[in-house]
Amino acid sequence: MFTKATFNFLDELAANNNRAWFEANKPRYESLVREPALEFITAMGPVLEKFAPSFRAEPRKMGGSLMRVFRDTRFSHDKTPYKTNIGIQFRHALGKDVHAPGFYLHVANDECFLGAGCWHPEADALGRIRDLIAAQPKRWFATRDDRKLAAHWSLAGDSLTRPPRGYAADHPALEDLKRKDFISLASLSAAEVTGPGLVKLAGARFAAAAPVMKFLCEALGVQY
Questions:
Q1: Helical ranges in 55-97 per DSSP H
Q2: What global pTM score does this model have?
Q3: pLDDT tens profile 13-24
């Protein structure tokens, strides 16, 4: 699937992030990035079906699990047109965008990792997650601190500096209630990304994160 040549291409794209270079090297993008990414997505389909049947592996060039290479530059000072990482999201079947519950693979020269959870959920979804944590903190702690999860995963993302409105400042789960993201990350090495066991490894790590994903899906009122 992914190879050292994939990482070399991403390095070259970072150094030549313009449309003329990308168009001249598009066949390399296809063979080194898109094709192995779609192969990985296809292989993950039956793996996810075993422990996360509501999450979709969609090996389409556009609109599927592989995220666009084009950057959204409308509100950014950085106007370079292309992403220099590979992003793959296995989104919940009812999810419409990257903010939906999902499992994720990130491949880049500076960092590779797996992700699981909800990134920047919209206000209503964020409130639902916080409400379930506030109502059942002991259950949340048991889920969050599960030994299998903690072996490879850690909570990450942005948080408020002050308690969110409507929640007690002395709530035992206050630090988690302040979270704006409910995502867990698990680091990967480049050797793991390019190795023959990536699908098996990703499947095992995602399965270990299933308890947190189940909790989030319950909070959002969707079937896990």
A1: none
A2: 0.94
A3: 999 999 999 999
